[in-house]
Structures are given as C-alpha cells and as structure tokens.
C-alpha cells in the first residue's frame, strides 16, 4: 500500500510538471504574438504620420503669379487656377489654369479663364458644373462654368463689407468656400484701412482679421462674424489667403498665411481653433521674414498631400507633406 501511494505521488508530480510546461508554452506563445504585433515598422502603425512635415519641392508655375487654387477633376487629373500679380503691366485680374496628373508637373492651358477676378476659389457642384468665388471691386462675387474653362458671372454679390461685429472694412477678399455637412462655409479677409499699431512697425498698411459666412445654396450667405482675429501679438494684424481643407480623419482645417509663414486651424462645432505654424521658409528668428509663403492651397494627389503657395515675383511653389 505504501509503494502504491509513492507511485501515485510520482504520477501526480509528473502530471503537474507537464501541466506547468504546457501553461508556460501557451504564455510564451501569446507573449511572442503580442511582441511581434508591437514590433511592426513605424510606417505600418496608425501614428506613422505624426512625424510628417511640409518639405519644399520647388516651383510649380514660374512667373508673376499668385493666389492658386486646385480642383480635382475626378478623372485622375487636377486643374490649378492661378492669378496674375497686380504689379504686372496690363493687369486686369486675369486668372489662368494648368493641368497635372501627378501634382508635380503642370501643363499650362491656353487662354485666360476669367478677368477682373482675383483670389479664385473653385468648387465642383453636385450637378457636375463648377463655381468660382473671387474678389472683385472690394466684394466677393461668383461665376459658373460647365467645363471649368469658360466662365459666366452670376448676378449679385456673395459677401460685402457690412458686418455685425463693429468693423469698419474698406473691402473683403481672398474667399475660400467648402461644403461642410449640409452648409457652404466661406472664410475671407476683412480689410481695415489702417496699420495694426499695437505691434509697433509692421509692413502692411491694412489690418486683416478673417471673417466667415454660411449658406444653404452657395449663393446667399449669412455672415457669422470673426473666424480668427489677427489683432494680437502672434499675427500682428495680418492674416490672408485662407483655404478650407477636408483633412484626414474627417477633420476640417483652415490654412492661412501670416508674417511668419503658413498656419492651420481646426474647424469644429462652428469654431476655429488657435492657429499653429505648419510651414515657413524663413531662416533664423526674423520678426517679418522677406517674402513669406502666401495664399496656400492644398490637394491630396496619388496619396500624397501637396501644398501650393505664392512667392512674390517668382511664381507658384510646391511643398509635400512627408
């Protein structure tokens, strides 16, 4: 009886050891799978774009041009609209265009798209037509086109200088319009005809806060007041060239430029967040860098984000987000 008990004890001990070994193997296998998942290259992780930044990529359209805007034509091609700079002899608010399939190489299209229009912002409408919003005679107006090439001005004014926030505006301009939800949202500058003296000596003789308005049909806009106020120590009275962008993850961003470079703000719940600097060509800590990148427009082409911006008397330049 005693020997039987010892044999039984040995058997139980062996079974326990086998059980512990099995548990250890399962634990190692689970841990090894988990470790393998966590050790994937950063490029495969959801946060891989956190280190991305805008990098200069050279000139897109050389010449005395500014105020670019890009439209996805839906057939693997993109159209870039851009304006003649006002200092050029014979300036009459001309808007031109170019085509590209890769965002890098642009082929100019013959002729002029429209005149007496600056800062074009072009939308493709639900019926396949195009609408261009632009600055004209101190107000914001619009035109329509069936092919994006020949434009017909629409009657009336989309936005004028009147406002309910106590600003004495000399003109409004640089509109950007996007369909967000069931509303058309427009952001534009309002020009106050005096320097922002609280910042000391500044380059511009005007002060530019950004205002915004909304519309159900894209034609009749209800003014919503100030979107972003430039009258502070960061912007020193100057914001210009706003651009609404449908960013990744359903985020709506507003890009703009100030003295230091290009900034962006997030638009959510009818509010614009504090802008943060995202791209600059300045070297050192200059208060007012010479020829900062201006009037940005963005387009995601072949999976890559492209930014096009003006450089005075040089043309439309490009930056890539990577």
Provide structural commentary.
The protein is mostly beta strands and 322 residues long. It has one domain (59-321): Glycosyl hydrolase domain, family 43 (Tachylectin-2, Chain A), CATH 2.115.10.20. The protein is 11% helix and 44% strand. It has 1 helix and 21 strands. It has one helix at residues 2-38; strands at 54-62, 65-72, 78-84, 95-100, 107-108, 118-124, 130-136, 139-145, 152-153, 169-180, 183-192, 210-215, 221-228, 240-246, 252-258, 261-268, 271-272, 276-279, 294-301, 304-311, 315-321. The longest helix has 37 residues, at 2-38. The radius of gyration is 28 Å and the shape is globular. Mean pLDDT is 88; it is low at 1-6 and 10-48.
List the SSEs and their pairings:
Blueprint: H1 2-38, E1 54-62, E2 65-72, E3 78-84, E4 95-100, E5 107-108, E6 118-124, E7 130-136, E8 139-145, E9 152-153, E10 169-180, E11 183-192, E12 210-215, E13 221-228, E14 240-246, E15 252-258, E16 261-268, E17 271-272, E18 276-279, E19 294-301, E20 304-311, E21 315-321
Antiparallel strand pairs: 1-21, 2-3, 3-4, 4-5, 6-7, 7-8, 8-9, 10-11, 11-12, 12-13, 14-15, 15-16, 16-17, 16-18, 19-20, 20-21
């Amino acid at each position: 009886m005693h020997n039987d008990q010892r044999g039984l004890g040995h058997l139980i001990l062996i079974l326990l050891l086998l059980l512990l070994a099995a548990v250890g193997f399962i634990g190692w296998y689970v841990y090894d799978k988990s470790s393998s998942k966590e050790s994937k290259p950063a490029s495969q992780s959801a946060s891989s774009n956190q280190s991305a930044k805008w990098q200069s990529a050279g000139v897109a359209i050389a010449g005395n041009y500014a105020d670019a805007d890009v439209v996805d034509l839906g057939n693997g091609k993109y159209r870039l609209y851009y304006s003649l700079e006002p200092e050029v002899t014979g300036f009459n608010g001309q808007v031109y265009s170019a085509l590209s399939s890769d965002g890098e190489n642009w082929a100019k299209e013959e002729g002029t798209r429209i005149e007496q229009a600056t800062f074009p912002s072009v939308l493709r409408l639900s019926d396949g037509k195009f609408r261009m919003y632009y600055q004209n005679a101190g107000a914001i107006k619009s035109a329509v086109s069936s092919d994006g090439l020949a434009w017909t001005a629409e009657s009336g004014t989309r936005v004028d200088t009147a406002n309910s926030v106590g600003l004495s505006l000399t003109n409004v301009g640089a509109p950007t319009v996007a369909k967000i939800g069931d509303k058309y949202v427009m952001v534009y500058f309002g020009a106050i005809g005096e320097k922002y003296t609280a910042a000391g000596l500044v380059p511009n003789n005007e002060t530019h806060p950004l205002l915004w308005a909304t519309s159900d049909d894209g034609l009749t806009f209800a003014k919503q007041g100030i979107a972003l106020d430039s009258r502070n120590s960061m912007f020193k009275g100057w914001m210009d060239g706003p651009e609404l962008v449908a960013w990744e993850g359903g985020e709506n961003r507003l890009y703009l430029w100030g003295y230091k470079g290009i900034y962006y703000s997030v638009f959510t719940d009818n509010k614009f967040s504090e802008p943060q600097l995202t791209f600059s060509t300045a070297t050192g800590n200059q208060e007012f860098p010479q020829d900062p990148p201006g009037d940005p427009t963005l387009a995601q082409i072949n999976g890559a984000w492209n930014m096009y911006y003006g450089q005075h008397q040089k043309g439309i330049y490009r930056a890539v987000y990577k």
